[in-house]
Amino acid sequence: MGNTPLRKVGIALGAALILIWCLLPVAWIISLSFKSQESITNGSPGFFPSEGGFAGWDNYVAAWDNEQFRRAIFNSIGISLIATLLSVIVATLAAYAIARLEFRGKKLVLSTALAIAMFPVVSLVGPLFDMWRAIGLYDTWPGLIIPYMSFTLPLAIWTLAAFFREIPWEMEQAAQVDGATSWQAFRKVIVPLAAPGVFTAAILTFFFAWNDFVFGISLTSTEAARPIPASLSFFVGSDPFNRPASLLAAGAVIATLPIIVIVLAFQRKIVAGLTSGAVKG
Amino acid sequence: MGDPQGRGAGSAVRRVGIGAALVLAAGTLSACSSDGKPTLNWYINPDGQATLTSLAERCSTDDYDIAIQLLPTGATDQRTQLARRLAANDSSTDLMSLDPVFVAEFANAGWLAEFEGDAADAVVDDDVLSGPADTVQWDDKVYAAPQWANTQVLWYRQSLAEQAGIADALQDGTATWSQVIDAASENGATVGVQADRYEAYMVWINSLVQGAGGDIVSDTEAGVDAQVDIDSDAGRAAAAVVQQLADSPAAQSDLSVSREGTSLGAMYGDGPGEFMTNWTFVYKNYEGTVSDEEFADLAWARYPRTVEGEESAPPVGGIDIGVGAFSEHPDWAIEAAQCVTDPEAQLQLAVNDGLMPARASVYEEQELVDAYDAGLLDLYRESIEAGGTRPKSAFYNQISGAVQSTWHPPASVDPEKTPRESADFIRDVLQGKALL
Amino acid sequence: MSATTTAPAGVAKTPKSKNASDRSVAENRLGMKLVAPALVVMLFVTAFPMLQALWLSLSNYALTAPDDRSFVGAQNYVTALSDPLFWRTMLVTVGIMVVTVFFELVIGFVFALVMHRVIFARGIIRTSILIPYGVITVVSGFAWQFAFSSTNGFVNAWVPFIEDNFNWFGEQFPALFAICVSEIWKTTPFMSLLLLAGLAQVSEDMIEAAKVDGATWWQRMWKVILPNMRAAIMVAILFRALDAFRIFDNIFVMTGGAVNTESVSFLTYRQVIEQFQIGMGSALSVLLFLSVLVIAFGIVKLFRVDLAAARQEG
Q: Transmembrane ranges (chain A) (predicted)?
């Protein structure tokens, strides 16, 4: 290439493009959430709230005052956390075996994981609904936690296995030689080394559970278990005949906040997890 | 990141414990209230939440409490949520607010408890308007109690109608859709309807067809073998109206995704206003949100005619209260259903929320007369009585879905093709020969 | 990454027990025990329901008319496969898949190149690129639906040659365009991260060598970089294509399947959950599953994807 100034400009432009790409729609939904509901009804085209159509925090207050929405947040947090926890525990066991042990059926597990990662989720909705209503799991937390676990396991197993392969396991023995008990060796040496991988897998699993929509709308019918994405799609304002676009936007921003916080805090770990867990040459 | 992991295992176990406890709590929550008194769950649609909540309190007794559970906005979504619970034989669905068109389907599926004897006589006595009374009966049995009735009228601005010279025709109730659309086009105004692919579009089509003296389907007792009548002169007249609006400058730009709320803004927007067919809530919606001067300009007339010389068939909707067939307390639930549909309840819904009574006597109540323009109240009642109901079929949802599918988007409607195609499609869907 | 593949297994086998074959039997048993829970959970929610769907798909069974249930053999499949609606949804789905994966790949690759070379603001760029990835699909759908809205959005005002009151959701192609934009916006960052990982594995030495040999930037790209990223690109295509084929959330939120925008997933959902046609819905579920198999097989064969890499076999 040689032409370094040109190249620099190109990269700077590219970087600006990436930032616009990623942040513009987010800025838009935030801007929309500040349009007043009245101005939405009357039509308020444009990126920013029109003059006199600025709602302040009204939409956020109204969204938060919505009992169903608060329940949905509670459901989503609870269900996603439990699913994440269980999924990571089960995946850790499996990933350890895959990374460290030779056993028959390893290929079967990896193939199953691959198959499930590609599985068309909607095709399960019918039979699962039928099963859940028969065994009483319909519209309950476990009714969502179980499918979330199954569908996050492949990603969790891959991410963890990739991390575990990089752990210098011989250090465990070295510690034992130095007089540590095997539990101490495991706790002091292996756990700190494995922890980042487990943590990364947990974040990715949580994202999946938080994002799910198909199970969320088909396997629930009340706020007993309905998670945020489903709740947003059924969002009801004070005026039932008017879909409250700006109120919905406020709800959407609230639902996105946890994700943004996690991304800001753990950017490095997520990138490492995504790239190691999903593609290896 | 090293340190917190040590505590991971312990807190993990605790968290699972808490999680399990929460799950159990969520499961038992609905069954009993704290003092051991059973709770009846009432699934309501979002119209008039505040009034319904106070109704639930008033109708709670020493034997039971009534708790409100909120359903989504659209009629189709409400049906889906309820039907899924009932298909799962859910015993916690005690009372439910049902769009009248789904009573037949639910009753046929065995999901509704029958109102028998005195209870049946009480909920469909002579005071109940004939339209709503008809919606709660299936197979000669009573399966729900009418709570309120809804209807559509034509809302517009008096100044616009006078400018267009159709004010008199509107007040006589003789104006046709064609006249209204032309009047709007010639004066830079628009016509607001509901034509997104959802239930209210079916409401519009059904009224247009009935307004031309026809029906979409008849002999609906025959279930999947019902007679499909939409491929008729009436069906073609209805299609002609949809086509005329879609092709005219009076069509709103979001016609194909228009809903009850989307055309409200055009009434007092920049232009001369609009003609809008919409439900009764519109009056309360504008009252207080627009200036007094603008509000005084709001006018209303009977639903436009599809064809000249034939009385219009205004849409009729509303809510019936059904009792779940799997309820653990069906007798109490039926008692509660009567309580939440009594004249006092209907009066409150009408005065507070603009949801019109299903009982004739309530229209005479002073409190309601004071809350509304007398002419408007008469128009509502006249419309509900003259209104056309949608087909009463156990397969209504399929019929409606098939009609929506073939008639949407409105710009694709063609009188020569659409009625014929939709008739074929309804038949195929009912017979299980076509996917929907 | 590649260096680590052999070490752990070797370490694991360091002599602790005297008898090597005893040890491998024990290891075998332990391995199977450790993966058993994962395998059971994965299969319980997929294989078992899928078999049930297979069985249900042979009856005419609607939840709203439970008494009319009857065995109809393959009738549901015949009906579905001879129905123009099924093929239309299939065409729409494949169209969405091809278009979105193509643009994601191209834009994602550009993003990956930029991220690979950028020196300043690395953290900010990587953080922001994770935001679309983390945003709920439903939220993305709403954001773009409102953005394209003629009454409250900004797209009509910003894009030249588009009338201010143009209704994007009134016709099939504009509506599909809006859906694809939402889909591409959300998933391109993920694609770019996958490609970035692949890019990092291309050895700088080879690129330098090519440079010395006088290869232009374009030649280096086609002859050195892309061939060395092949595995990464192929696996990314495989995953994204199958993900795009399952598209549901955006369609549900943005059009509700109106104006002929239904995907196969959406059609299946509507049959099962809205129409309660469990029999026909199950038949569609099975057909959807088979389609995914066919597409996966097609991509693996056509692009010669390394399945071992896709399976993450270290």
A: 12-34, 73-96, 108-129, 141-164, 189-210, 245-266
* Token pair in block for residue A53: 């159509």
Its sign, for the CA torsion B133, B139, B141, B147, is: negative
Report the 10 Å Cβ neighbour count for C298: 11
ipTM: 0.90
Q: Is there a common fold for B36-149+318-377 and B150-315+390-430?
A: yes
pLDDT digits (tens, 9 = 90+) for B83-113: 988 888 888 899 999 999 999 999 988 999 9
Q: What is the 3-state secondary structure (H, E, C) of C50-87?
A: HHHHHHHCCEECECCCHHHCEECCCHHHHHHHCCHHHH
Decide if domain A66-234 falls under CATH 1.10.3720.10. yes
Contacts of residue B57, defined as CB under 8 A and 6 or more positions apart, other chains included, come to: B66
The architecture that CATH gives domain B150-315+390-430 is 3-Layer(aba) Sandwich (3.40)
> Are A271 and C193 an interchain contact pair (Cβ–Cβ within 8 Å)?
yes
Tokens of B349: 């819904």
Taking alpha carbons only, the member of B248, C35, B169 closest to residue A109 is C35
CB A62 within 8 A of CB A238: yes
Cβ atoms of B245 and B191 closer than 8 Å: yes
> Hey, is the C-beta of B30 within 8 angstroms of any chain A C-beta?
yes
Which structure tokens are listed for B241?
Answer: 């109206």
The encoded tokens of residue A121 equal 């989720």
Q: Does C209 touch chain A (CB under 8 A)?
A: no
Place of tokens 């169209």: C95
Residues of chain A whose beta carbon is less than 8 angstroms from a beta carbon of chain B are 38, 41-43, 67-68, 78, 81-82, 85-86, 89, 129, 132-133, 138-142, 187, 191-192, 195-196, 198-199, 221-225, 234, 236, 238-243
Using a CB–CB cutoff of 8 Å, tell me whether C136 touches chain A.
Answer: yes
Fold of C74-310: MetI-like fold (1.10.3720)
Helix C84-117 × helix A4-32 angle, to 10°? 130
**What residue ranges do the domains of chain C occupy?**
74-310
**pLDDT averaged over consecutive 10-residue blocks of chain A (281 residues)?**
73 91 94 89 85 86 87 94 95 90 88 88 87 88 94 90 83 81 79 84 90 91 89 73 81 91 86 61 29
Q: Does A119 contact chain C (CB < 8 Å)?
A: yes
- Cβ-based contacts under 8 A for chains A and C: 374
Q: Which residue, chain included where needed, has tokens 């059973």?
A: B38
Q: Spell out the CATH class of B36-149+318-377.
A: alpha beta
